[in-house]
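[job 4471] stage=fold_predict status=RUNNING
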Amino acid sequence: MISTPKNRLHALWLRMSFVDVTALAILAAYAALMVSRPFFLWTPQSGFFLFLAVLSFGYFAVRAFQWARKHLLWSLRNRLVIAYLFIAVVPVLLLLTMAGLGAYLLYWQLGSYVLYTDMQERLERISEVAATMATSYAIEAASGHQAAALALPEDTPTYLKAAMTELPGLKIETGRGLNLLKGADGTTLKNFSGLVLRGDVLNLRAVVVRATPSGPLVVSASVPVTPKFIETFVPELGPIQFDVLRPMRAGTSREVSVVINGQAYFRAQRIATPQRDVPPGVNPFDKLITGIVILDMLDPDRQPADAEPSRLFASFSTRPSLLNRRLFSPLGELGGAAATALLVIGAVFLAIEFASLLTGIVLTRTITTAVDDLYRATQHVQAGDLSFRVRVPHRDQLAALGDSFNSMMQSVSTLIEEQRQRQRLENELSIAHEVQQQLFPHALPELPGIELEAVCQPARVVSGDYYDFIRITPTHLAIALADISGKGISAALLMASLQAALRSDVLRYREGQPDYKPAPVNTAEIVSHLNRHLFRNTSDERYATLFFGVYDTQTRRLSYTNAGHPPPIHISGGHVERLETGGMVVGLFNDVPFAQGTIEIDPGSLLIAYSDGLIEPENVYGEEFGTERLIEVAKEDEDASPQLIASALMRAAEEWSGSPEQADDMTVIVARFPAVRELNA
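[job 4471] inference complete, writing structure tokens
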């Protein structure tokens, strides 16, 4: 079948959905309405119909973009042509925009500078007039004459007449303006010049002091800032306007003009040039420049309650050609030629820029970005950088290859990263295990009348269980066993904190310490201190169970406090006693009372302290090993050494569970108190 425009349109119509047909009908109806409106004035207007037309146009714009992306951009050549068009156009437009903004700011700054310097020249001129008159009056006063104020221009000397031509409304006074000579730090200045706002009237003021035989002579020169005065400013600035703003005060009925730094201002005075106009531009680039300058102004009427000072804004409207005339005025007739040459050079540079971009497009049309990305990706992989990914901004023939490469690199990177993380974790756990082993006692203390053994078997590489033996005096031995909530590194870190706090508190009872506290040792007080330490230095969900006891070999008494820990077992003959006196776990609440218990240790008896991991292993039927079975095993080996008893307890718990995987840390302390005959043997 021959493909003709009619056939293609028919095929397109068959592919259109109901939404496509509806949107097309809305656009056609709206276009017909717009075409008929100039011929039929009664044509209705509907905002809702316009809204539907805009939606339809947006819908077709999205569909056109999708179609172009699927068909036109599949070809790499078309993609490169479009890409290089953007490369050639967008940077040039950005450069032109930046150049235009820069030129506007430059001319704004130039106009502001001209206005500011022109105002400074007038301030210098009025200061010169005031100084000249003050010197003249001082000479007259030294000659014995009395200085007279000049009231009318015809009575003034020629010097003042010339000054009044430059400064319309110039007025000379003596004995006025002394308040303007007071500095901010309270010192008195020798002279003053500047803009002064008195009431709602803006003036140029200059005050000079001269010494005379009869005392200081104060001469003040003032010029009101009026439209006539502003007309004397340089004509290149065009229309000039001064706006005097005062802060709003309570009871002020003026209208708010502007808000600056949270302070509302009203316009106290507006002074503008009435006879200045902005001339038309000399070329298309001669745009209107409007600038604003903030001038310093002194307001003697400012109240202490005013948070912000009064402000003076001077605005002007001009064109670059006028400012160029001012800028190039030292060059005379060559100034216009210099400005024209600058524009010509800029146009030449812009043409060179366009030519360079076009040349670059022509020279690089055959380069495919996708192939270059794949090549660079292989170079990164060769250098060992597996994180590099091929950029796939579109779906085309080479995109599938890029996706395959990225998927492959992602899989390889994931496997390597997992292996690295596993190795790093194993190294950290190994270091943590070595550090934790340093926290456990390196050697068991030897005291007469007691034999000790302790075994800790962690479920992970590091343990959350903690045991310790601290020899306080030759006859006092502290025994501690704790179980930290949680497992792993976090529990081990809390264990280290608990060990440091406990040892610091217990060693206070050892002679020779700076804060030595003589015996007897109060176990409840130590556990209470430890509870407050953990509560204040750990998160809310962290806590520990703790058994802490102190055994006196002379009195054969064991003082202890059990803070929520599985109660240790004291076996003496056939009698079994559980050490439960104490309180709740440590670290969960701040002020918790703890009690101290005391038991008499009979010769030949046995003390077994353990963590919950020793009694909680379950068999295949879900039954726990339990405390009763632990007691049975201990009684069977009651006369054995503490080492054999501890090994028997651990072995019995492992055999009961029958699983090679340990669910919790298992720790046991065995203390045997031999009879006198055993000691003698």
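[job 4471] summary: Residues 464 and 486 are 7 Å apart (CA to CA).
[job 4471] exit 0
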